[in-house]
Amino acid sequence: MGGANHDSSGTSAIREGHQFDVDALAAWMAANVEDFQSPLQVEQFKGGQSNPTFKLITPNRNYVLRKKPPGAVLKGAHAIDREARVLQALGKTEFPVPRVYGFCTDDHVIGTWFYVMEMVEGRVFWDATFPSVSNAERPAYFDAMNKTLAYLHQLNPKDIGLEDFGKPGNFFQRQIARWSKQYLEDVEAGRDDNMDKVIEWLNGRIPEGDEISIVHGDFRCDNMIFHPTEPRVIAVLDWELSTLGNPLSDFCYHTTMYHMPPDIVAGLANADIAALNIPSEKEYIAAYCRRTGRDGIPNYAFYMVFNFFRLAAIFHGIKGRALRGTASSAQAQERAKKFPELARIAWTLALES
Fold first, then answer.
1. Whole-number pLDDT of residue 9
2. What pLDDT, on a 0 to 100 scale, did the predictor assign at position 335?
3. Are residues 83 and 221 in the same domain?
4. What's the pLDDT at 200?
5. Does pTM surpass 0.85?
6. Distance of alpha carbon 92 from alpha carbon 273, whole angstroms
7. Cα separation of the two ends of the chain
């Protein structure tokens, strides 16, 4: 899965502290996964910041296993059950997600809850400039992402049994309160002046109105698998932050790529997008608005600051976990170092607005 040169791509042996009973997993799969054939061999994906992710290799086919991390976890975090549920619900639509083969809530099998899904073979772009794609083709890849997210936001949660997948109303109040609380309570990870100012700024500017749709929460190019040769999204991954929420917030998280330094997560900051034939932020917003029947996005700056704040809070949490030794990824230390920069970008965007 993913580009050969990226430190999150590919697999390795199961990392220290992440081992589990492979025989117990094989027995569970034999009982719960149709067509399962042993022997079972397990490798760990290098990515998967929050929930450890494993490649399951069998003679018949390969699968992917996602589980909660070992050790004590924050309340509400690492919600593997929600991830499995949204994938199963979206599997009934035309939306591109991997098939879920089984979900296990018995801690006795491998020590934590987990689910097993299809291993989708295709391309993951870790770099938002899509460097391996020709200039002529690049707009089609951006359009494929835009179209996929617009489709998600137009699904009716009730039609696929997700009407209770999130609390209705006050999305931003609840989100700002949730991430502020997590930030303030994680004393070991420390405080940041920009972050404190951003929290105050956001609380004073929450937009009116409550639009609700299924939101992915982490929609960016490296969380999707593209067709091996075509500009087409064939699977969207990493649904851990999905809920019922504001579709514009979700879309604007995606467009943070235009302001995101590429050393933090896949971003286009400092890229010459005109030379690369990448649609401008304005054009990209217009395409989404066209698809979703909107006349522009009022409060765009608020959504942008909110999303940088939320990502900063997530990285602050990774910093805390790295300090406590419970972070699940080899890149956790690197992520932790980027927290102040995200807080700084959030505050800069707030001042510019």
1. 66
2. 87
3. no
4. 97
5. yes
6. 37
7. 39
Give the pLDDT of residue 352.
95
Same domain for 174 and 313, yes or no, is: yes
CATH number at residue 145: 3.90.1200.10
Residue 180 shares a structural domain with residue 303: yes
Whether residue 347 sits in one domain with residue 254: yes
296: Cα within 13 Å, side-chain hemisphere: 5
Range of the structural domain that residue 326 is part of: 138-352
The answer on 181 and 281 residing in a single domain is yes
What confidence score (pLDDT) does residue 73 get? 62
Handedness of CA 296, 298, 303, 305 (dihedral sign): positive
**Running DSSP on this structure, what letter comes out for residue 176?**
H
| Residue 224: closest CA among 291, 318, 128 | 128
Residue whose entry in the numeric block shows the structure tokens 């992440």? 18
Q: Give the 3-state secondary structure of residue 79.
A: coil
- Is the previous residue joined to 247 through a cis bond, with omega within 30 degrees of 0? no
* Same-domain status, 225 and 329: yes
pLDDT on residue 76: 61
Residue 3's pLDDT is: 35
For the chain, the domain total comes to: 2
Distance between CA 43 and CA 57 in Å, rounded? 8
Closest to 73 measured CA to CA, from 339, 335, 328, 333: 328
Cβ proximity of 122 and 225 under 8 Å: yes
**Do residues 302 and 331 share a domain?**
yes
- Contact present, 47 and 35 (Cβ < 8 Å): no
- Residues (pLDDT < 50) of the chain are 1-7
Of 223, 102, 219, 226, the C-alpha closest to 150 is 219
Burial call 153-178: b when 16+ CB within 10 Å, e when fewer: bebebeebebeebbeeeebbeebbee
169's tokens: 């109303």
